Amino acid sequence: MAIPREIGRNQRSLGYFLQCNSDSDCPSWSCYASATLRLKSQKEGGNDCEKTISHVFYPKENDWGYSCFLRWEDVMEPEHGYLKDDTLILEVHLVADAPHGVQWDSKKHTGYIGLKNQGATCYMNSLLQTLFFTNKLRKAVYQISTEQDDPHKSVALAMQRVFYELQFSDKPVGTKKLTRSFGWDAFDSFLQHDVQELCRVLLDNLESKMKDTPVNGVIPQLFEGKMKSYVRCKKVPFESNREEAFYDIQLNVKGKQTLRIFQRLRGSGDARRG
């Protein structure tokens, strides 16, 4: 919202504000946002005028900004190049949190939905979202034949349900049928399990269900790596080695600014005598 304002006797300014309006009639909504308000220079090599704001918007304070963003004479000054052909160009770069006190429609505003937390299943939800957004895996899971499976014990069928609802539902997706297919009861859902072990169990189960199907081998194609262990003699031309497949690796990231996976995989040899 930009308007000319009187700021004193015979003085005017450009008022520049960000306004936040809720779709809800709820009187207790609020939304935190920070933004950069910018008046663009239309002159080649000209400098834009910009200022930042941070504010919690709510019904009684649903706009925030500057009554005097820029003096009117500066707006009109040809040297600045803000006005061209009777036109000003205003830009807003905005970062906002999800609003509080309203029925937040994640699908409407982001295009995606989340997973319900059963108590301590946030680690599992993160894993499921990661697997869901692995497009080739999701398509392969849909192609698994589950018509003859026990609906209470089939991990593959439960994964198909979760993936389908994440893709097409408008509301957060429950995971109780999936955890029930693991053999978990309500108490297990309140225990923090190892996410690496859960990933292995899920992938192993899906891989076995994909055998002898058109999607056989998809999981190794996506997740499998090779590790080679070897013993090399220093004084004679002899080397013995063993190659192993893996689906995950452990990285010591504490105190590290970046993940140098290549160096970690490459490793360093240990000298041995014997």
TrEMBL record:
One of its GO terms (biological process) is regulation of protein stability. GO terms for molecular function: cysteine-type deubiquitinase activity. InterPro entries: MATH/TRAF_dom (IPR002083), Papain-like_cys_pep_sf (IPR038765), Peptidase_C19 (IPR050164), Peptidase_C19_UCH (IPR001394), TRAF-like (IPR008974), USP (IPR028889), USP_CS (IPR018200). Signal peptide: none annotated. GO terms for cellular component: cytosol; nucleus. Residues 113-274 form the USP domain. Residues 1-94 form the MATH domain. Belongs to the peptidase C19 family. PANTHER family: UBIQUITIN CARBOXYL-TERMINAL HYDROLASE (PTHR24006), UBIQUITIN CARBOXYL-TERMINAL HYDROLASE 7 (PTHR24006:SF644). This is Ubiquitin carboxyl-terminal hydrolase 7. It comes from Trichinella spiralis. The gene is ad48h-Ts7.
